[in-house]
């Protein structure tokens, strides 16, 4: 039986062959596992790849970590796009199904627990920006991957995925809150505790109440009560897609970033590829982002968008808004 491997799979395989260290090999293998079509004909191949992956992981753990060597971080996913959200949740909640519904990634989905073995990223589009979602192995009593707290600590936000119909909502919620505490992540919707240690990071923590397609709100309310009613809660369904379009926008807005379109004098702005900057960024921040030299030489800017009138002249301290078009004058 042929496996019908995609060009993307062959690319990943090529990278695997050329890889010179454990981190590169593991990254390529992870992609191969994710990209391998899952059917009867590829079962053996999948088993072989997984075996190779765990063997490499073991080797990587034993490899010396000298000052010049590459540190192997199986649980680290390089941030791409406007920001990174990590999906965390109990087995079978639908984390991988949500990644598949929101992005072009092809994670394995199964009706049995612990289908996902390694983190897998995907990009979710909202208008002209992309946010990164990272699917992860399940959080369960005695089965939680040791790198998950790190992954959550490094991400810009956390999505707690729960199945609104699950009957073990409370123990699952407890495990997720323990994990957030170990990750030193404080949900931004809660008042920040006075005198909190500096390593505690306030981040957006949202709850996705998945499998809500047949729910009239009763199950969602119970799930919300279990996980904490002070966390923003979004009923969604990976199956029907309900709630997902609205969620794309929330994922971008909660990152508190803005899009800005630089334009050259006399030319049209490039509205396809915005610069993404933190909320509160100024003209100077944009110029520094475009080019250090431009920032130093910049005299003034003209702005189209939220300013009083189009083409208004502003100085370098002017605070930008989402979707502003900016002409920098050096
Ligand atoms: N009815 C319904 N079923 C869903 C929905 N989302 C996922 N499922 C099903 O739930 C099961 C688990 O889905 P996965 O996406 O593999 O769940 P997961 O959280 O990634 O599971 P692990 O990787 O094992 O932790 C599969 O049988 C899915 O088809 C949904 O919105 N509605
Ligand atoms: Mg999964």
What can you tell me about this protein's structure?
The protein is α/β, with parallel strands linked by helices. The chain has ten helices and 13 strands. Strands 2-3-1-4-7-8 form a six-stranded mixed sheet, with helices on both faces. A five-stranded mixed sheet has the order 10-9-13-11-12, covered by helices on one side. The protein is globular. The termini are far apart. 36% of the residues are buried. Residues 66-72 have low confidence and may be disordered. Guanosine-5'-triphosphate binds at residues 89, 91-97, 109-111, 113-116, 138, 210-211, 213, 237-239.
The fraction of residues assigned to DSSP E strands is: 15-25%
* CATH homology superfamily of the largest domain: P-loop containing nucleotide triphosphate hydrolases
The separation of the N and C termini measures 63 Å
Give the radius of gyration.
22 Å
